[in-house]
Design brief:
The chain is of the alpha/beta class and 392 residues long. It has 17 helices and nine strands. The strands form two sheets. It has a seven-stranded mixed beta sheet, sandwiched between helices. A two-stranded antiparallel sheet has the order 7-9. Strand 3 and strand 4 form a beta hairpin. The radius of gyration is 31 Å and the shape is elongated. It binds guanosine-5'-diphosphate (GDP) and magnesium ion.
Length: 392
């Protein structure tokens, strides 16, 4: 006890593994609520045995987002949290199997100038595919620590927390100078000069504020309270920017510039495995989603399912159930009831009415069960796996 209390925010795309990492680190020490005023879930939890890192660490699971633009409740919640609550550090979780798309959020987070680390998650899948990610190079280019992890097994997670803690001790991070092309960079610096005072007053990072103004972020425009004269100048600069490119729209142009940067970073640090080393599931996908074979394969599989369900196994089981009920159970029940001295109408009601009625429905049960199993289980994909492996 007595360790300094710090807050670390977990930010990442949907399905990048945030919840898996969050659960791994906090166990049952969780508090689940809502962000004030909106129906976006808020999860907080204290990291188990955080004292070994020298801190009392609270982790905040922010909503999954792709960008920091103000177009959804989730995006607004996440960016307001980072700019207003100023977490002591940000862990940006990145799905390593989908690195380009995930880095689009990372490059925006870097501009928020919080102490930050990247958790490069799903490394088990990267290894399985045979891809190679040069983590050192990635980290050098982005100017932040990148820690490979597998949240599902917890591999690399202690190192991740250590890295986050040492980022807290180092303080804020500097964005790389080549985040944008030269012209975007120049334009963005001209806006810096116009907004820095108001950005500082509002406690916002200056570079981030000016790039958002260049993008035409209406929400931020409202928050800053810039004089009309300044807004007019910004719009003039933005028009000059738009006139310089065929893309013609400032937001698209900034996004394009970010993607070009990401392409360079990924090009220098990620080596995809040769096509020959595709995983089994990719090989199956290549066959079952083939532009010519897909439909015939689908029809064959469906034919197989219906044959199994209605004419072969299903039909045998249906006959079996019918035979058990009307051939065995009903005569036995009729005899037993008669031996007990039941009236004929009573026996008939039970045997010919209830039992044969229920039996009629019951005889469809095997077919329903087979159809259900075949449609829902992995049976189909597994048998396809099997066939493909044999064919190889
Ligand atoms: P969230 O949407 O960011 O909260 O992501 P989840 O934690 O719900 O994870 C999305 C999916 O990815 C789940 O099916 C997880 O089991 C899976 N997943 C998470 N981490 C890993 C990992 O390290 N390796 C693999 N193979 N799967 C993972
Ligand atoms: Mg989640």
């Amino acid at each position: 006890m007595g360790e300094r209390a710090v807050k670390i925010a977990l930010v990442g795309n949907p399905n990048s593994g945030k919840t898996t990492l969050f659960n791994h680190l906090t166990g049952s020490n969780q508090y689940v609520g809502n962000w004030p005023g909106v129906t976006v879930e808020k999860k907080e939890g204290r990291i188990r045995q955080a004292e070994r890192y020298g801190y009392d660490i609270t982790l905040v699971d922010l909503p999954g987002i792709y960008s920091l633009s103000p177009y959804s409740m989730e995006e607004i919640v996440a960016r307001d949290y980072v700019t207003k609550e100023k977490p002591d550090a940000v862990i940006n979780i990145v799905d390593a199997t989908n690195i380009e798309r995930n880095l689009y959020l990372s490059v925006q987070l870097i501009e928020m100038e919080r102490p930050m680390v990247i958790a490069l998650n799903m490394m088990d899948e990267v290894y399985a595919k045979g891809d190679v990610i040069h983590v050192e190079e990635l980290s050098r280019r982005l100017n932040i620590p990148v820690i490979p992890i597998t949240a599902k097994t917890g591999e690399g997670v202690p190192r991740l927390v250590e890295a986050a803690v040492s980022q807290i001790e180092r303080g804020f991070i500097m964005e790389p100078d080549d985040l944008y092309d030269d012209f975007t960079h120049e334009i963005h610096h001209r806006i810096d000069n116009l907004v820095w005072q108001q950005a500082k007053n509002a406690g916002l990072p200056v570079h981030w504020t000016s790039i958002k103004m260049l993008e035409g972020d209406q929400q931020l425009r409202g928050v800053l309270g810039l004089p009309d004269e300044t807004l007019r100048k910004i719009d003039e600069i933005a028009h000059e920017y738009e006139a310089s490119s065929a893309l013609g729209d400032r937001e698209t142009m900034v996004a394009d510039s970010r993607y070009k940067y990401i392409e360079r970073v990924v090009g220098a640090s990620v080596v995809k495995a040769k096509l020959g080393k595709r995983t089994l599931s990719e090989k199956i996908d290549a066959v079952v989603t083939h532009r010519f074979f897909a439909l015939p394969i689908f029809l064959c599989v469906m034919f197989l399912i219906f044959t199994l369900t209605f004419s072969t196994i299903g039909a045998w089981l249906q006959d079996g159930v019918a035979w058990l009920i009307s051939g065995k159970f009903s005569p036995w029940l009729r005899e037993w009831m008669t031996s007990l001295g039941a009236q004929t109408w009573m026996t008939s009601l039970v045997v010919d009415g209830a039992v044969s009625g229920v039996g009629g429905v019951l005889s469809f049960l095997p077919q329903i069960a087979i159809l259900f199993c075949l449609l829902s289980s992995n049976l189909i994909s597994n048998s396809l796996c099997f066939i493909i492996t044999i064919l190889q």
